[in-house]
Specification:
By secondary structure, this protein is α/β, with parallel strands linked by helices. The chain has eight helices and 39 strands. The structure holds uridine-diphosphate-N-acetylglucosamine (UD1) and calcium ion.
Amino acid sequence: MSIEIIILAAGQGRRMRSELPKVLHRIGGKPMLQHLLETTRILKPHRTHVVVGYGADRVIDVIESQFPGENQNPHIEAGCEIDCGINWVEQTEQCGTGHAVMQVLPHIAADATVLILNGDMPLISRRTLQLVSRCRNNLILLTSNLPNPTGLGRIIRNSDNEIIGIVEEKDASAAQQGITEVNTNCMSLKAEHLGAWLPSLQCANAQKEYYLTDVIACAVKNNVRVVDISAPDPVETMGVNSRSDLGRLERCYQARLADQIMANGVTLLDSTRFDLRGTCEFGIDCILDINVILEGRVKFGNRVSVGPNTLIRNACIGDDSVIEANSVIDHATIGKNCTIGPFARIRPETVLQDRVRIGNFVEIKKSHIKHNSKANHLSYVGDSQVGENVNIGAGVITCNYDGANKHQTIIGDDVFVGSNSQLVAPVQIGDGATVGAGSTITDNIEPDCLAMGRARQTTINGWTRPPKRAPRCKPD
Ligand code: UD1
Ligand code: CA
């Protein structure tokens, strides 16, 4: 039995009040449509057809860039299959969900089983999709029971409790609006049935649209059994129509991730104030304080501790390292037993070896710092290589940019750079050298030398400061 999947994603999502096509709004940092595409892969569909319309080019570009290496041609004509398995089908005018499915019909094999999904229902589970897609000669519909069904299509049943149709809220009578069992638009049926019923859809309804939901009545009329499955977890079937829906779903998603992470042995000091927008691997006994945001791919060793209000993006943090409050770590590798922050910024392409200490208001960019070195206060280290056991004093700055190009600063092992020094790159400081505080270093320093680059102190004996002028009397 071959399955073909249809994902409806042509709508703008007017209720979002956004220029961005609705299916590109993100949950957990990932476009809603991408969530769905990743989940539907489990079904190994023969093909996945995505109906696009509003912002079609943007949807195609964003989604294809998320499956790198799987497609070579990012600017694809609608209706033409690509390597990531998506057949993009354009619906030029959005005349309703039934009309959207009609656009796909010519691309579907006559003997296929078709699974239809809304592109705005990102958290449906693999298990539920597997259950819904097991249709034989019947129609399987995923329903949900919601205390507040506002805006959704209501399931209509007869006196034998069999489903006989779906009524959209705008077309529903007051009594029908009281029904709390709702349609998710997730259904499977035979392609031949779809082909027979779609052409009969009418748009004589409140929204003047061709409703996909009317195929349920077609099934009933043609004696095709309608089987309903209800989702085990209501979060799975939560659709996103507004920003509040998006916000609610984001919190549900994060709660789910937090539970998984805690189940794997991580302490979250407040699981409602933790956000993962990507993937993270943890060693044992890591502790994350409140408002930690992890983005992209993050990897923690064992016993890593992260302070409050910290952003970590695409980074690896070694065993026993401590990230103090209010730090930002972006595309960096941090060794074992390091201490970072509070208020530190570790920028892309930085590698810190073991036992490195980076203190408050220190920025490190594209630099490699070896074992046991430290920059504890108010420094900027950019485009640098720093050896082992180096002490970078308070307020040291590598002047890496001459207004046109970036230059390297190379610091050997056991170097001591006195406070408030500027190292004007390109410059090299040999092993064991010392830079006197307040120096501006423009020339290379040989190993084991002391270099000072500052004006000599002048002292004037018996100097008296000018006396303070008496305050002038204010006119009254
Ligand atoms: C639809 C269902 C409703 C169900 C709800 C579940 C219909 C008529 N109603 O309503 O019964 O309870 O989903 O969330 O189907 N789309 C297109 N082309 C169009 C119109 C829509 O591709 O011409 C896409 C949208 O991008 C969206 C999906 O179809 O991803 C659903 O459209 P939406 O307008 O959100 O439908 P609802 O009013 O939520
Ligand atoms: Ca919807």
